[in-house]
Amino acid sequence: MGEAVREPRQDRSRATRGRLLAAAVDCLAEVGWTGSTVSVVAERAGVSRGAAQHHFPTREDLFTAAIAYVTDERVEFLRAALPTLPPGPDRTRFVVDAIGEMYAGKLFKAALQLWVAAASDEQLRVQVLPLEARVGREAHQLTVEALGADESHPGVREAVQATLDLARGLGLANLLTDDTKRRHRVLAEWTTALSAKLATLA
Amino acid sequence: MGEAVREPRQDRSRATRGRLLAAAVDCLAEVGWTGSTVSVVAERAGVSRGAAQHHFPTREDLFTAAIAYVTDERVEFLRAALPTLPPGPDRTRFVVDAIGEMYAGKLFKAALQLWVAAASDEQLRVQVLPLEARVGREAHQLTVEALGADESHPGVREAVQATLDLARGLGLANLLTDDTKRRHRVLAEWTTALSAKLATLA
Fold first, then answer.
1. Of B31, B129, B177, the CB nearest to A176
2. How many domains does chain A have?
3. Considering chain B, what is the average pLDDT of its residues?
4. Chain B residue with minimal CA distance to A156?
5. Is B159's Cβ below 8 Å from some Cβ in A?
6. I need a surface site. Which of A108, A165, B86, B189 has the fewest CB within 10 A?
7. Does B28 fall in a domain?
8. Which residues of A touch B28 (CB under 8 A)?
9. Per-residue pLDDT reduced to its tens digit, A78-97
């Protein structure tokens, strides 16, 4: 077969894969790990079960790939938006708010289901560990860039990490109820402390 | 039957209940929500299944009661230790470290399993919501007392909440790997910010 035929097939395959991955994140966030199977995701994505299993032989493969894929998409999108960030003191507030919203959303809810399932499932844990490390690294690197933080100064690396750990804790508090108002107040207080930290070093 | 007979029976019943609740927290933390049933907990506690079901008719009853019971025990223990806290600037460091350790431990891992299961189980969610509110309130009140924080000052309430949200985020980061070293560094940085906040208002 020539290029003209092969190319569209690869595109179709890539599109199918992307639909499955996006549906897998939706599924995890909505029905949790126990109810999330390759079949359920295939149906949600409008893909045959056979095609889904061709792309992802196991449930663990599908859901870890889904969190990785949607995280990469999100990081790429946010990195592209970095040049549009406001300058000056508004920047820290803007970045902290954006991080808070990210961990209050669907991707975090889905990842939380996977992490917590992995705590008592050794097979899943083996696949989630490198994913957790990668997602954590990407979130940290993006936050450093967004804040324009210089990690060579003492305490700056820890302050950036605290921002992300705080956002994850707030994400957890937003799991069962809408915690938006309280989250904004807590993040406003943290922004003051973080701005002071970054300013003394500028 | 006279008092002399009834009293020991009530004590036995109370002891059985306590054993079931402690075993339920261990079970949740170790095997997760899916593998945690009344039967599994009864066996672990050395109690007959019938006796367990007499105390806790449903799985939801048993595990929400278990988190409530162990939280109350912990809060009571920590409140009793308040008079032994060091005075002066060491106090904030001590309290922040203690909170960090609490959310790195078994009770938080168990509660996390229950909260995350409740996100996609409406029946469980109805029972977890008031429990989450109560546990959050108790943790907040105890932290205010431990820090000797005056919440009438602007931002102090939010700084106390941020301490707990940060500790929950760090607890999450400690779920699949031992994150102790990084947690200590992040909490040390947070202690500096929190001490500054509390000191400007003293």
1. B129
2. 1
3. 93
4. B189
5. yes
6. B86
7. no
8. none
9. 999 999 999 878 999 999 99
For the cut 50, the answer to whether the pLDDT of residue A1 exceeds it is: no
- Measured distance CA(A163)–CA(A92) in Å, rounded: 11
**B9 part of a folded domain:** no
Write out pLDDT tens, residues A150-188: 999 999 999 999 999 999 999 999 999 999 999 999 999
Average pLDDT over residues B170-194: 97
CATH of the domain at A183: 1.10.357.10
B130 to chain A, any CB pair closer than 8 A? The answer is no
Q: Who contacts B150 (Cβ-Cβ below 8 Å, separation ≥6)?
A: B156, B201
Cα angle for residues A31, A35, A39 (degrees, 5° grid):
115
Q: Answer for the pair A68, A46: CB distance below 8 angstroms, yes or no.
A: no
User: What token pair was written down for B198?
Assistant: 């509390």
In a domain, B49, yes or no: no
Within 8 A of A109 by CB-CB distance, chain B residues are 119
Arithmetic mean of pLDDT over chain A? 93
CB pairs under 8 A between A and B: 128
- Could you tell me if B170 lies within 8 Å of chain A, comparing CB atoms? yes
Question: What is residue B7's three-state secondary structure?
Answer: helix
Q: Which two tokens stand for residue B66?
A: 């278990």
pLDDT given for residue B8 in this prediction:
78
B185 contacts in A (CB within 8 Å)?
158, 161
Element (H, E) at A115: helix A106-118
Residue of A nearest to B112 (CA): A116
By CA distance, what is B117's nearest residue in A? Answer: A32
Task: Test A176 with B118 for CB contact under 8 angstroms.
Answer: yes
- Written as six digits, the tokens of A63 are 């859901």
Within 8 A by CB and 6+ apart from B71, the residues are: B107, B111, B135, B138
Distance from CA of A67 to the nearest CA of B (A): 16
Domain assignment present for residue B194? The answer is yes
DSSP secondary structure letter of residue A177: S
Residue of chain A nearest B173, judged by CA positions: A165
What does the alpha-carbon distance between residue A172 and residue B132 come to, in Å, rounded to a whole number? 11
